[in-house]
Design goal:
- By secondary structure, the protein is of the alpha/beta class.
- Helices cover 44% and strands 13% of the residues.
- The protein is built from 13 helices and twelve strands.
- The chain has helices at 15-26, 37-57, 70-85, 101-112, 130-136, 159-168, 188-191, 229-232, 240-278, 305-314, 334-338, 343-346, 360-386, and strands at residues 3-4, 64-67, 92-96, 116-120, 141-145, 172-176, 195-199, 210-214, 282-284, 295-300, 317-318, 349-353.
- Helix 3 (70-85) runs parallel beside helix 4 (101-112).
- The longest helix is centred in the middle third of the chain and has 39 residues, at 240-278.
- It is globular.
- The relative contact order is 0.16.
- Bound molecules: pyridoxal-5'-phosphate (PLP).
- Pyridoxal-5'-phosphate binds next to helix 3.
Length: 389
């Protein structure tokens, strides 16, 4: 039996979601823009999904724009606001140094096209201090983008405080909430943001479906142009099966959030405490609280994260060395580097992220298998170091 501890990379689709997607692929196959019965049935399914997503984050259905996922939502927010505010002379964009590549690379692309950009440093626990943002803001700041929960370490940023600072200088605020939605309560009005990204496959929905929540009245230009879909905010025939899947996943999350949160926190804390107690030379990376309840990121002295990942995989245990996009390369984590961790710790850390199917037995199984694997890897490293060159 394989153990999946990599839910921040992606999650398995819930059976209720799979059933709904299948129905949308077969019975409700119409084009939601068509006037006839088939089209209207598809349109009704989109409307249901829009209401479920809005309910999950405390927004209005009309504020939800469906996209192909987190990456597109981040691109839409940054490029759409940058372009909309360009004529006003606001040509400064701000983001944290620990954002997902979907934000960081987009920011770099905008910098090449003439926008001034600032990357906010984080402290040793991975948090953007409000005073750091206050110093970075300028009269021409158009948009600030700071993620809600970090995908590698799970730490939660003080979004409400940061958004208030941005607004005080006339800037808009976007948060990438791909890793917090459905893990903790996310309420757009309480966060005080203008735009929020989410992605279905991070909470038991299908891949290739997500949304950008855009507060009513926010100035933004469509990045995808064509037909009048999504109230002309995102052209293209809607991915009805994907969106239906997103809607059902959102509905399930709204129902289960409270219970799942507590259960996952218990499992994660047992796992984390167990590793720290049984394996010497280990430390948790990032602020412990507030943190999403399913994530732990731990460094192991004297080993390389990739070797540990492979050794665990051979034992049937799936973990990650950080963000999925950088796996397969030996690049140190940009998140851990931004926190100022010493070089060896940016390369010896693994992320374990739990989800709906995980059990206490699985946690205990990992706790039994991990210590001898780490010991073996360390002794191999020691032997290699002792060998004459
Ligand atoms: C914080 C964050 N933002 C954005 C994304 C991208 O989302 P998607 O895979 O839906 O494009 C991810 C996925 O890893 C993420 O963790």
């Amino acid at each position: 039996m394989r153990i999946y501890f990599d839910h921040n990379a992606t999650t398995p689709v819930a059976p209720e979601v799979a059933d709904a997607v299948l129905q949308a692929l077969t019975s409700d196959f119409g084009n939601a823009s068509s006037v006839h019965h088939f089209g209207q049935r598809a349109k009704a399914r989109l409307d249901e999904a829009r209401s479920e997503v809005a309910a999950l984050i405390g927004g209005e259905p009309s504020e939800v724009v469906f996209t192909s996922g987190g990456t597109e939502s981040d691109n839409f927010a940054l490029r759409g606001v940058a372009e909309a505010l360009e004529p006003t002379g606001r040509k400064h964009l701000v983001a944290s140094a620990i954002e997902h590549e979907a934000v960081l690379v987009t920011l770099r692309a905008l910098a090449r096209r003439g926008w001034r950009t600032t990357l906010l440093p984080v402290d040793a626990t991975g948090i953007v201090k409000p005073e750091t943002l206050a110093e970075a803001l300028a009269d021409d700041t158009a948009l600030v983008s700071v993620m809600h929960a970090n995908n590698e370490i799970g730490t939660i940023q003080p979004i409400a405080e940061l958004a208030a600072l941005a607004h005080a200088r006339g800037a808009l605020f976007h948060t990438d909430a791909v890793q917090s939605v459905a893990k903790i309560l996310v309420a757009v009005r309480e966060l005080g943001v203008d735009l929020l990204s989410l992605s279905a496959h991070k909470f038991n929905g299908p891949k290739g479906a997500g949304a950008l929540w855009i507060k009513r009245g926010t100035r933004i230009i469509a990045h995808m142009t064509g037909g009048k879909h999504e109230r002309t905010r995102r052209a293209g025939t809607e991915n009805v099966p994907g969106i239906v899947g997103l809607g059902v996943a959102a509905k399930l999350a709204s129902k289960k959030l409270q219970a799942d949160q507590g259960r996952l926190r218990e499992l994660r804390d047992r796992l984390e405490a167990g590793v720290l107690a049984r394996v010497a030379g280990t430390a948790v990376n990032g602020q412990l609280e507030p943190r999403v309840p399913n994530t732990t990121n731990i460094s192991f002295d004297g080993i390389e994260a990739e070797s540990l990942l492979i050794a665990l995989d051979l034992e049937g245990i799936a973990v990650s060395t950080g963000s999925a996009c950088s796996s397969g390369t030996l690049e140190p984590s940009h998140v851990l580097r931004a926190m100022g961790l010493p070089a060896h710790r940016t390369q010896n850390s693994i992320r374990m992220s739990l989800g709906a199917g995980n059990t206490i037995e699985q946690v205990d199984d990992v706790l039994a298998k991990l210590p001898p694997i780490v010991e073996k890897l360390r002794s191999l490293t020691r032997r290699r170091e002792l060998q004459p060159r």
